[in-house]
Design a protein that fits this description.
This protein is of the alpha/beta class. The chain folds into 2 domains: 204 residues, Rossmann fold, CATH 3.40.50; 44 residues. It is built from 9 helices and 12 strands. A 6-stranded mixed sheet has the order 5-6-7-3-8-9, with helices on both faces. The protein has a 3-stranded antiparallel sheet with strand order 2-1-4, covered by helices on one side. A 3-stranded antiparallel sheet has the order 11-10-12, with helices on one face. A hairpin with a 2-residue loop joins strand 10 and strand 11. The chain is globular. It binds adenosine-5'-triphosphate (ATP). The site of adenosine-5'-triphosphate (ATP) has 11 residues, from helix 1. Adenosine-5'-triphosphate (ATP) binds next to helix 1. It comes from Holdemania massiliensis. GO terms for molecular function: ATP binding; ATP hydrolysis activity. Keywords: ATP-binding, Nucleotide-binding, Transport. It holds the Pfam family ABC_tran. Belongs to the ABC transporter superfamily.
Amino acid sequence: MNTAIEVHGLTKQYGNHIVLKNLNFTVYEGEIFALLGVNGAGKTTTLECIEGLKKADGGQIRINGKMGIQLQSASLPERIQAREAVSLFAYWNQTEPDPGLLETMGIQEFAKKQYVQLSTGQKRRLHLALALIGNPDILILDEPTAGLDVEGRIVLHEQIRQLKAQGKTMVLASHDMAEVESLCDRIGILIEGKLAFVGTVAQLNEKVGKQYNISIRSEAGVAQFATEDIAETLLTLLAQYKAEGKGISDIHVDRGSLEQHFISMTRGEKG
Ligand SMILES: Nc1ncnc2c1ncn2[C@@H]1O[C@H](COP(=O)(O)OP(=O)(O)OP(=O)(O)O)[C@@H](O)[C@H]1O
């Protein structure tokens, strides 16, 4: 496997606060690699060191290929139209705007709108399109779906999958375990500036167990259950609620918070 990014002994501190502590990881060509961590774990700082926007205090970063960076929100002038931003980025990249790219990213539908008038989802799509203008080999995406509704996330996930199918390498930051599980090939988990785990989703599941949390709201209040077999547990619970005549008003299933996985990882326990 060819290497797209190699990070060796990366350290970074702000004053006395060491935020990245000797990070070592490799991103291979064509894969989606996620940096997963809670707020403040060091994800953005790591990405910015890779992007060259922040200077590392120690270590080496090797990049093999052309890199595209997805902008953060509110990075463009408020009054610039989406199509003007595209033209500007194309000019900087000494190329022409690619109508196919604009079509795929769904930019045409809001091409004449000013940046300030765009929804969060439209801004993200525009940022992704701008990152793609120079036809990079490697894409860096910092929390690409933050603030998006379910539909917006599904659309963006699909676009990210299409980019992978085209052979792009992607590194993304996220604090959403479920997103990372469905999208990424490998994960690096950052805990307080240290990489606590690097490996595939399957390897992570082996390590922390594949536990799901189920919350059921009914007249009797909210009850919570943990299981490794959602289908079986849900069927049993639904039958039980029905038999007891308890009307269900909401059901929520999740993969457990990152914090739960971190705690179990550091304790070496399951769940
Ligand atoms: N310019 C800065 N000056 C001082 N401290 C900073 C600066 N930028 C980030 N930090 C600190 O570095 C740590 C890591 O921040 P970073 O933004 O990399 O985390 P993150 O994992 O991306 O968090 P989030 O999910 O909230 O974006 C935090 O404690 C943060 O307060």
